[in-house]
């Protein structure tokens, strides 16, 4: 069997003295969509941010345990190399307001001073925008500022910016929570396309979304990974009482 | 009852109208001296403006004509140098304040900036005299620039800090999540996004000090000849206005009015430039 893309072993995370993520163990394989769901404050976003070490922006954050990306301990890598390999899409669309659409897609290269030829640039931009299902809408306006797009388009632009770096893993932190239902449907459809080339981890507080888009689902509750199983199985025959309670709406 | 309420209404309308009148009156009253000063300077100064006014040096008393080329060039050099000195200190301090708003050092910097705002410009001049003119043994444009740059810092730091603080966390995270190192995030995302605010702060601080006289009195000192040497005494517009305005000669008064008009135009232009930059380069978050 192929080597797992991500292995999480006895992973804990704290903010100060508050333990936000408790003893998580998880193995993920390539080209899958994994949903991380759970009620607010269950540690799902913190867990996601630990995978590309964005939690380190919070000074009092601290972790224990291991996360291996293709067998390599991410806490022994430089965070910069790690983030080049693990892309992230945020809750709120955040294209760079001083850059055009074209520059936004290439932002990872431009800001890291990675030199590309003109034709490479064009190819990367077109490929990333096509994969993000945005090419047809913006191909004539590549020189416009990214912030002129609608919310849903901006979020697809951010996805394009992340996949332009050809990451091993793409993290999505509630990517549709700031979007209207139509844009949300568009993004969800896009995730199905993206999984052909990428491995995706999507955090969502929306159960229906988890059920619709993912192959496997992880249910977090109060910092614990309660259950991790193929999505269909988790939603139809949950093993843990707490999962059962959550999906039947007994708490949220 | 019915009549009574109408009477009430009348009274309210009267009060409202009289308050509106009062506000208008005092607004006009504040504008009046400003407009008067503008008109008076233009009226008095316009007669002095001609080609030789900009290109020639002042002539000795008794000779007619002559110009203020030395002061024009001097002002440009002194103010330009002051801006160059103040920009790195001002921008980096503002960056520090916006990046570490809570620290002890930030509190101290903020306090110093506040105190600096309140220091009379003549005192800044004396300090520059003591620090630079005395040890270097000569009045110099450089010491004048240092004095002016100290005067510029508070405005520059405050306006830059305000702009930089408005930079949203989600854009900072967007950059860091792409593997962009912190310093490049600052230089290539935060600063470009804040460019219009930072630039307009710089220009406003220039406009603020371009007419400062006191800090230059015993630093740049003044020079009747055209000089490009920053370690020698140099003339400047405010010094020229000061010297000529207190002189007993009419032709010198005329030059002083002309110089005042030029200074006024510079400040006006700087303000227009600020507005243009804000309109053109501001970024929508």
UniProtKB/TrEMBL annotation, chain A:
PROSITE patterns: ABC_TRANSPORTER_1, ABC_TRANSPORTER_2. One of its GO terms (cellular component) is membrane. Keywords: ATP-binding, Nucleotide-binding, Phosphate transport, Transport. Coiled coil: none annotated. It holds the Pfam family ABC_tran. Gene3D superfamilies: P-loop containing nucleotide triphosphate hydrolases (3.40.50.300). One of its GO terms (molecular function) is ATP hydrolysis activity. One of its GO terms (biological process) is phosphate ion transmembrane transport. InterPro entries: AAA+_ATPase, ABC_transporter-like_ATP-bd, ABC_transporter-like_CS, P-loop_NTPase, PstB-like. Residues 6-247 form the ABC transporter domain. This is Phosphate transport system ATP-binding protein. It comes from Thermoflavifilum aggregans. The lineage of its organism: Bacteria, Pseudomonadati, Bacteroidota, Chitinophagia, Chitinophagales.
């Amino acid at each position: 069997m192929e080597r797992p893309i991500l292995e999480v072993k006895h992973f804990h995370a704290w903010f100060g003295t508050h333990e936000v993520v408790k003893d998580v163990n998880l193995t993920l394989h390539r080209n899958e969509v994994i949903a991380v769901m759970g009620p607010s404050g269950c540690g799902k976003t913190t867990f996601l941010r630990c995978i590309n070490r964005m939690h380190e922006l919070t000074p009092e954050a601290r972790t224990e345990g291991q996360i291996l990306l293709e067998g390599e301990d991410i806490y022994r890598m430089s965070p910069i190399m790690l983030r080049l390999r693990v892309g992230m899409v945020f809750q709120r669309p955040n294209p760079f307001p001083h850059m055009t659409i074209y520059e936004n897609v290439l932002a990872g290269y431009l800001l890291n001073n990675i030199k590309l030829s003109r034709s490479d640039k064009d190819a990367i931009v077109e490929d990333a925008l096509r994969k993000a299902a945005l090419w047809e809408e913006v191909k004539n306006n590549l020189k416009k500022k990214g912030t002129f797009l609608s919310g849903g388009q901006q979020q697809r632009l951010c996805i394009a910016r992340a996949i332009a770096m050809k990451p091993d893993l793409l993290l999505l932190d509630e990517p549709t929570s700031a979007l209207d239902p139509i844009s949300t449907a568009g993004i969800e459809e896009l995730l199905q396309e993206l999984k052909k080339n990428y491995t995706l981890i999507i955090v969502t507080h929306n159960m229906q979304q988890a059920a619709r888009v993912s192959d496997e689902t992880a249910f977090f509750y109060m910092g614990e990974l309660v259950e991790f199983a193929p999505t269909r199985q988790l939603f139809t025959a949950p093993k843990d009482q707490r999962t059962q309670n959550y999906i039947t709406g007994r708490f949220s | 009852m019915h009549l009574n309420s109408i009477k009430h209404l009348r009274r309210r309308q009267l009060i409202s109208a009289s308050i509106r009148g009062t506000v208008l009156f005092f607004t006009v009253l504040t504008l009046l001296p400003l407009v008067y000063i503008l008109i008076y300077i233009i009226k008095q100064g316009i007669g002095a403006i001609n080609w030789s006014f900009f290109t020639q040096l002042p002539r000795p008393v008794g000779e007619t004509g002559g110009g203020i080329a030395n002061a024009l060039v001097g002002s440009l050099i002194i103010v330009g140098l002051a801006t160059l000195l103040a920009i790195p200190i001002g921008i980096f301090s503002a960056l520090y304040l916006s990046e570490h708003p809570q620290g002890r050092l930030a509190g101290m910097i903020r306090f110093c900036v506040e105190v600096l705002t309140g220091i009379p410009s003549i005192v800044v001049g004396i300090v520059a005299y003591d620090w630079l003119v005395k040890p270097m043994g000569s009045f110099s444009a450089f010491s004048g620039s240092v004095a002016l740059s100290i005067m510029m810092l508070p405005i520059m730091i405050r306006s830059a800090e305000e702009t930089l603080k408005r930079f949203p966390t989600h854009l900072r995270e967007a950059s860091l999540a792409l593997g962009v190192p912190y310093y490049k995030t600052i230089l290539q995302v935060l600063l470009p996004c804040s460019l219009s605010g930072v630039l307009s702060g710089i220009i406003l601080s220039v406009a603020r000090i371009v007419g400062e006289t006191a800090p230059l009195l015993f630093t740049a000192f003044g020079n009747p000849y055209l000089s490009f040497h920053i370690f020698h005494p140099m003339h400047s517009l405010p010094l020229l206005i000061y010297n000529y305005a207190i002189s007993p000669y009419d032709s010198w008064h005329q030059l002083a009015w002309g110089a005042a008009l030029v200074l006024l135009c510079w400040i006006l232009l700087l303000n227009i430039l600020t507005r243009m930059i804000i309109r053109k380069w501001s970024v929508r978050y």
